[in-house]
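re: that chain from earlier
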Amino acid sequence: MKKIISIFCLQFFLFAHAQELISSKVHSHNDYNQGVPFWDAYANGATSIEADVFLQDNNLFVAHNQSDIEPKRTLEDLYLKPLTKALELGFKKDKELFLLIDLKTDAVPTLNRLIKILDSYPTLIADKHIKIIISGNRPNPNTYSKYPHYIYFDHQELDTPLTAENLDKVAMVSVDFKKYSVWNGKGRFTHEDYNRVKNVIAQGKSFHKPFRFWASPDGNSSWKALLDLGVDIINTDHPYDCVKYFGSLSQRYITASNFSKVYTPTFKTDQKQMPVKNIILLIGDGNGLSQISSAVLANNGALSLTQLRSIGLLKTQSADDFTTDSAAAGTALATGIKTNNRAIGVDSLGKPVQNILELLQKKNFSTGCITTDEIIGATPAAFFAHTIERGDVAGISGDLLKSKLNLFVGGGASYFKNKNIDSQFSMLSSISEIAQTSSPAVGVLVSEKGVPSVLDGRGDFLADATRNSLAFLKKKNKPFFLMVEGAQIDSFGHANNVAGIVAETLDFDKAITEALVFADNNEGTLVIITADHETSGFAIPQGNVKKHEIEGDFITHDHTATMIPIFAYGPQSNKFTGVYENNVLFHKMLEVLNKEK
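^ sequence. v structure.
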């Protein structure tokens, strides 16, 4: 005799903390195809679990098609018993759950059999945090109220009115996404599709119940689009990825809180074959193209940096590794040689190498270093120190005291306790004093260790330090070389913190503005802006320029080997275009200064 077969979909819904899932709930579509049905989705915080279940020989089997039925894969074994065990063990016991059962054939007899089975699970049907919801082929909506108190329904007829008592038995409203849009989740909705989808969501929400699409696109872009449209339950075959995406979205989708006023340079001497007297080298630590792009998009589509015309790319590999660290990269920029990771101011054999500041000091140049890091950090240290180990705090701080720098600004006062730093530098109490002093060599240590971030209230420290330091160096009536580091773009990259990356990159642009203004007012000044490496594999999949919103994503908490941009402005800036190794920058700078190594 032909078997009587009914198909269900079991949907298990977990309401998670608002910070984890924003406002939408995650639906594990065809959950029985996961590696471990129920437990994978439940343990990873998915907000719904789906299983097609067939009624055969008075049993409920979980399968996608009738031909896939296996005797041991029953609704009870795969879902009801595990859920009961999870509750007994106290796993997420107080979270509200939706148990959605999608009847594909013969609604009434299948539902009656389900009720019979559920009667043997008193813990489930009595739990106030669990709702059992019938979907698919449901009984007549006019009969909803006749079913047991623990049975609810997924309403799918948007034009079918319900009495108040039957509406009370509706737990959610669901429709087929493909009836309203052909969007596959790549790119964006067309205007027509967007309006149709928006309207049907509004119609569904008129029932004042959670709204769900089935057969919707399945990926980051579609999840975010449906979230923004107000869909309450997101359909996915990738519950872990979806939960993870929503769980990190509040940290990755940010609104910029600081901005950079864009300066348009005069270009009067830009790319002209004129003598270069001064160089201002600005290094954004970890500042790759996506970091710059995020700041551009958050800043109404432009930065002072993006006004420049001479642009190139640097390759950053160190002597001993595919991916550089700041010590090796800083050394390459400062000395013109590739060295090993962690090494500062020495070659790959550990031999000290003269850096560009030391070379220029011998040729009557004034020199200075500014950073939003500790002054003994790897990047600034590459311009005055020599050690095989970037963690050699005593050696690096000692080299600063022995250096012929005219200026330094940064954090790390605690490293100079009892080291008589006043004998080498006039130590100032604030950066505003720098422009006023006539001392030959000055220093400002703004913190005991690390410098606060922009998000922590640092303000315009970097731009102010750059402006005051340029005024100080100009008063000496000598050529100069000033290195300015925006260090914490890197720090927030390591932390995978989008808000920090955007804030620090915008802050770095303010310092760039000060350099460009100085160059326009002081002929013979060349401004170079680059990075030591990229950090985090930062990407910006979407956002909103008008609202200053950026969504960021990451592939790592570490550095990457991607090339980094270099920009130049002023006389002979065109010589810095092209693609070349980072250590070549040193030689290009000496070339335009007409100085031999």
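Confidence is low (pLDDT under 50) at residues 1-22.
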